[in-house]
Each structure stands twice: as C-alpha cells, then as structure tokens.
Amino acid sequence: MTAVDSMAGRLAQIQQRIAQACARAGRAPDSVTLLPVSKTFEVDAVREAMALGLTRFGENKTQELRQKAAALAGQGLQWVLIGHLQTNKAKDAARDATELQSLDRPDLAEALHRRLVNEGRTLDVLVQVKTSSEPSKFGMDPVDVPAFLRRIATEFPTLRVQGLMTMAANSPDPAEVRACFRALRELRDQLRQQAIAGVSLERLSMGMSGDFELAIEEGSTEVRIGTAIFGARSYPDPQ
Prior knowledge:
Elements: H1 7-24, E1 33-36, H2 43-51, E2 56-59, H3 62-71, E3 78-81, H4 90-96, E4 99-103, H5 106-119, E5 123-128, H6 145-155, E6 159-165, H7 174-194, E7 203-205, H8 212-217, E8 222-225, H9 227-230
Helix pairs in contact: 4-5
C-alpha cells in the first residue's frame, strides 16, 4: 500500500497542500481549518479518522449524523451539518448538530430557533450564500444577506452567526471557480463594515476536495474535504 492509498497518507497530503496554498497567499497555515466530510462513509471510517486525531466531522443529512453520533457517543466529537436542511428536519438539527453551515432562509432560521429554545441550546451557524448561477446550488441571494443577519441577531438569539459558506460553480475554468470564492469574501468584507451587533463574520467556509486550494488563495478559513481524505464514495444503485 502506498502512502496515498491510506487515510493517513491522504490526510498528510491534504495538510501539505493546505500549507502550500496558504504560503502562496501569504497566510499562516493555521489560518485554515480542515473539516473532514464523512457523509456516506461508515462509522469505521470515522473511527480511523479519529485515530489520526480528527474530532470534527461534516455530514449532509440529520439521520446519518444522528446514527454516527449515537455509535460514537462519549468520544468528544463535533458534528457539523453542511447539507441543505429541510425545515421539517430543524428539530433533528437542533438536537444533534454541533453546528450548521447551510442556513439559507428565514423560515429555517425561525424553525431552528423555536426548536433550540425547547432544547435549551444555542447553535453556531454559517449563512450559506449562492455565488454561482447553477440551479442545483442552494444559498441565499447576496443582496438579501444583510437584512437576514440583522433579523437573526434581533429575533433568533439561539442562532450564533459565525460567518458565511458557499459552494463554487462546478466548472473546469479556475477563473469561474475563483470568482465564486472572491464574491463571498467581498460580501463578508462589506458586511463587516456594517458591524451588525451580535454577528461574527470571522469564518468563510469555502472549498472542497476539487477546489480548496483556489478557495484558500481567495480567503477561505475552512475547507470541507471528503473524498480526498476518506477515498471515493460508493453510492447505492438507485434501482
């Protein structure tokens, strides 16, 4: 087995590439956090990642998150929801997630707040912004974000805004991908000037296995890496 055939080898390679991208951008390597995305991978894969020192994992669906959290209870793990969240799943997110990175509409914020009040919890959130023209991408229109942040701060105090998240266009053109990341960073910079009380904008979650180096060069503070750490995903046959 070669180094890149093992999870340890793949993780080391990703960490090296993150450091190199930071160096190109004149940034410190520790200015970028790695979020391993364990969605669709079995609990044993998470255990292997834990043995490498990873304690925070990204999941797309509340049901899968809950199952893994139950199987690995008491291990001090943090579970981050990064997938599109239906409003009727707000109860599950409020109960089980450490953080939500895909808050993208007022009705979801309201549902989460109501459930969090019942749970006696607060939840760190990132607001997902749509920076590409692809219909398949979720996220709030950038022009609606300032008012949304103000509403969260005044009406939904259980939601602790920590920053913004986006998914870049699925394009072979690096310039098009960079433009998505740059748009989020520029939006964040504009919002900072407004100094919305109760809202932190320190974090920019952008960049995945195929484009995280571009994201880092454009200002990402957190990259969401799945297959480049865990290996290729095996999806069930839809038939």
